[in-house]
Specification:
This protein has 278 residues and is an alpha/beta fold. It has one domain: Alkaline Phosphatase, subunit A (3-Layer(aba) Sandwich), CATH 3.40.720. Strands 4-3-5-1-6-9-2-10 form an eight-stranded mixed β-sheet, with helices on both faces. A hairpin with a 2-residue loop joins strand 7 and strand 8. The longest helix is centred in the middle third of the chain and has 24 residues. The chain starts with a strand and ends in a 9-residue tail after the last helix.
Length: 278
């Protein structure tokens, strides 16, 4: 487990004003992302804060993605204390985030080539590489370009790793994808709809885990979740999701969890915290 290197890629804002935007995926070849979804498992991450506007709190989501609640202060020192000196390489195009970790790398999608980003990833020896790839704008062209570039980078990274033979790395890939706005309603799956109509009125369903924190009631934002894809040939189970699109993601077997609880599972895989939950 300790020879794992985790790559956490947050594709931020690539989903825009509606669920399953057809034009976003039309004729867009995402072979590597499709393969990762098909061979991995998918879930939904719920942000703790209910926004008063449709504009999302990017830094708040970043902080919770690293396992820090909204009222906790995220610093490099507090991160090391929480996760037993876990070494992180942050690659981001958000200045506020780059100031937190001393070994951060600025991501400039206008000037850097995919090969330069690939080299930065493959040459990094930190246990965790986090890439925050926020779309520059909400145009359809820009968001399609972002998905295409991420797919190409992952494809080249996995091919290079395979060709490295005995020097290859055991990657645990976690892809997180988010909306640009906070008010996107996520539909129930056909199975969930059927189950909801078959439940008698007198029956009280048990509380879902995302409605509790430290055994106390919790009320997270249910709209615009972040979708999370886990992929490693050894450690992740395979669910029924087949391809990279929202209508597939909602069928993921990982269900819904609170965003700030998500990182603990990655840290556990890296041997930095005890197992949490099931």
């Amino acid at each position: 487990m300790n020879n794992l290197q985790s790559i956490l890629i947050w594709i931020d804002g690539v989903f825009d004003k509606e669920f399953e935007e057809k034009e976003l995926y039309k004729d867009l070849e995402l072979n590597t992302l499709n393969s990762i979804v098909n061979d991995g498992c998918v879930g939904q991450l719920l942000y703790s804060q209910k926004d008063t506007t449709t504009n999302k709190d990017t830094f708040g989501e970043f902080q919770e993605l690293l396992g820090f609640k909204h009222d906790e202060k995220l610093t490099e020192q507090s991160f090391k204390e929480k996760y037993m000196d876990l070494k992180i390489k942050l690659i981001s195009n958000i200045e506020k985030e780059l100031c937190i970790f001393s070994d951060s790398v600025k991501l400039d999608t206008q000037k850097q080539t995919n090969q330069e980003l690939l080299d930065t990833i493959s040459e990094s020896n930190e246990q965790l590489i986090m890439i925050h790839y926020q779309t520059i704008n909400n145009s359809l062209e820009e968001r399609r370009k972002t998905l295409f570039n991420i797919d190409l980078i992952l494809s080249n990274l996995l091919k290079k790793n395979q060709n490295d033979g005995n020097n290859n790395k055991n990657y645990y890939i976690n892809i997180v994808i988010g909306y640009s706005q906070t008010n996107i309603e996520i539909p129930l799956t056909a199975q969930q709809q059927q189950q909801s109509t078959n439940i008698p009125n007198w029956f009280n369903l048990p509380k879902q885990s995302y409605t509790l924190s430290n055994s106390l009631p919790y009320d997270p934002r249910l709209t615009s979740p972040l979708f999370t894809i886990h992929y490693n040939s050894i450690f992740t189970r395979k669910d029924n999701t087949k391809s990279f699109c929202e209508s597939e993601f909602i069928n993921g077997s990982n269900g819904k969890i609170l965003l700030f609880q998500h990182f603990r599972e990655l840290a556990f895989k890296l041997g930095k915290v005890p197992k949490y939950g099931a």
